[in-house]
Amino acid sequence: MTFIRILQPTCGSKRGFCQRFMALNVSKKTITNLTETKDKVTIGLRLASMLVDHFIMTFIIMFIVMPEFAINMFDAFNIDHDPTSFGLGGISFLFAFGFSTYFNKDIFNGRSPAKRILKMQVIDNKTGQVANPLKCLARNLTIPLWPLEVIFIFIYPKRRLGDKIAGTRIDYIENPEKTKMDWSKFAIALLIAIGFSILITLPFTVMNSKWKTDNVSYIKNTFNQTKSEQTNKLFEDKLNGLIREANFRIYDKIKNDDRKFVAGILYFNNQSDYDNFEESESKISELLTSEFSLDSHVCFLKFVYKEPGSISTRQKMYDSRKEEN
């Protein structure tokens, strides 16, 4: 028969054994917690973050550009004798600033509104610290490519395309430490975002320039009131039934041009005549060119149909020299 002797640790060695055991146990818990934290950044959580951020940031952008939007809406119902630029328009500073907030949504402590709600944070992949404002901006410059970003999230939720470019990742952190803001990088990130917003809207600005009707630089103090009133009566008499009101303003001089400027607003009686624009405009232009030779006049007309709560407008410039070019 074989006997096995078990040696019990002495008081001193027993204490050391317990300390090593506790340290090992704490290490295992730490590893387990880190694993659980890593696993919390799931595909569902990332997609939810993108969706919530989109709604929140869109609301913020609308709030920023609302004053300009209100002014444009007011101008749309304010019919004047100057050409109106239809289309998407050029980008304004407010619009660019609004979009820059979207690109900088993670700029405060690496947490966008959705990341604060869902307990996530943008982390520098090399240092393990909170990503600085420039890195947070860089990761969001790929937002316009959102379908591609969704694909990357399905492949690896913690790092989409923007994260790989910026060298960042997303971690699940319930109580992140507040970091001191680097205001110089904050300012640079804001300026870059505004410039980038202008850049990506250039195609729309180019498209708008094709639709834009150029303003005529007439000299205001050459307004011919007598001729304007005579023209109003002429059009209302000759086009009776087609239009209910004519409002002309005629200027005898245009800057750097030897012609006169004729601007008119014609209010239609019936929507059917307004909708049948080609035929109606043919009758109007025939009368216009018989009264004002396009060799000596630049003419501009707005065609308007109004009813309670709505207004429809068209416009046309009659400029023989531009038509020749």
Structure description:
This protein is of the alpha+beta class and 325 residues long. It has 2 domains: 169 residues, no CATH class; 105 residues, GMP Synthetase, Chain A, domain 3 (2-Layer Sandwich). Helix content is 53%, strand content 15%. It is built from 13 helices and 6 strands. The chain has a 4-stranded mixed sheet. Strands 1-2 form a two-stranded antiparallel sheet. Helix 2 packs antiparallel against helix 3. The N and C termini lie far apart (117 Å). The relative contact order is 0.10. The N terminus is likely disordered.
Secondary structure elements and pairings:
Layout: H1 11-39, H2 43-76, H3 93-103, H4 113-118, E1 120-124, H5 133-140, H6 146-155, H7 161-166, E2 168-172, H8 183-200, H9 202-211, H10 225-238, E3 243-251, E4 260-268, H11 271-275, H12 277-291, E5 297-307, E6 310-318, H13 320-324
Parallel strand pairs: 4-5
Antiparallel strand pairs: 1-2, 3-4, 5-6
Helix pairs in contact: 2-3, 3-8
Major β-sheet profile: 4 strands, mixed
Q: List the domain count as a whole number.
A: 2
Mean of all residue-level pLDDT scores: 83
Measured between the Cα atoms of the first and last residue, the distance is 117 Å
How many beta-strand segments? 6
Oligomeric form of this entry?
single chain
Instruction: Write the element-wise H/E pattern from the N-terminal end onward.
Output: HHHHEHHHEHHHEEHHEEH
Q: Helix- and strand-based class? A: alpha+beta
The amount of beta strand, in percent, is 5-15%
